[in-house]
Amino acid sequence: MRCHSLRLPVELIFTIIDNLHDDTDSLKSFARTAKTFLGPSRAHLFYSFQCLSSPGKELTQSAAIVQQKYFRLNRYISASSQLARHIKHLIIYRANTSHSAWKHVEPILLDIILRLPNVTQISLQIFDWEFISDGLKAILRWLMRQPSVGCVSFRECQFPSLTTLTSLIFESSHLKHVEANILTFAPNQHQEFMGNDTRNSMGQENVSLASFYLGHQSSSLAQSLLPNMRRLSMLTLTQKANYAVMSKIPFLYLKSLEIAVCGSHGNTLPLEYLDPISMPQLRHLYFTDVLESEGCSPVPGMMKFLRKIAACSSLQSVHIALHVYSPLGTLTWIQWTYIDRALAGGHLSELRKVHISVTGDTDEDELLRLAGVLSSLRQQQILWIETKVWC
Description:
Blueprint: H1 10-19, H2 24-33, H3 35-45, E1 48-51, H4 63-79, H5 81-86, E2 89-95, H6 102-114, E3 121-128, H7 134-144, E4 151-159, H8 162-170, E5 177-185, H9 189-194, E6 211-214, H10 219-224, E7 234-237, H11 243-246, E8 256-260, E9 284-293, H12 299-306, E10 317-325, H13 336-343, E11 353-360, H14 364-373, H15 375-379, E12 383-388
Helix pairs in contact: 1-3, 2-3, 4-6, 12-13
């Protein structure tokens, strides 16, 4: 009896590989299976390069050991141009006084960066601009000006002034996405700059951001970039974002909005600063950090925004990340009828999906009670509720 092997279309295999982009072991197995699968697997395996490791042994290893590791990496990259072409996300981590080996690694890092021709995204994490050398500053400025680089993120970064940071962004005319979270500046520097007219900053008219992520302690940067957000299509506001700053933008081109509803202490965030009337092209709405507990409902906070949602006639989907923090059976969910009326009132003719992802203290009966008060959305067959049980 002859045994026939099952052959799948190559396109299907490539799709499977793409879905396994964060599964290193599976990607390595695909890379060893056939030469055809080597390229797609490598594209994910070597997509990002991080210097220095987080978390890792480098913080406890001697400077000589860490330096030798990056010497070897530089040799691999210089010997294989294909490997260098796969690296598209450059992450520079812990470039400050907390890492004793940084000064030993930095000269090697300069050489490595110059060998990466296809970088599209740069992430600076726990990063001190004054700590790095003038050579690395020049290379980062040069790299951010490359046409291929469209995304840059700053997390826990320190700059001598807000002017230094905004000049980095304004010099990068191809930049489309900025992510800012926990930014610090030298004392009194950002206050002085905020008093100036930022519209005259060098190259500002050449930058038009498509998406922006506003995190903690980043309001000064957001305010400086306001003139560059006129054509913003995607906006993310986290728990500690300054909603009042973003209210100054006419979101005429905004298509995707992600907003946190409750703060870290369960308090309702000021969503009234965001006006749906200024978002005529909004397609997708995401509510995150939605906390439901006994005696405290997030619905009043959500309704500050949803009461005018009829103005977003192009809205296609609403996603709610709900966390329940209450003993089972103690919630009535009665206030969620306001959400039901706002979304199923007939004004949103393009709405095709209301997706609620529930975590926390929940069971099947609790979900049935929630679905029961969302009767209009159920009748329109656009309601989808799923649960993710935390163990």
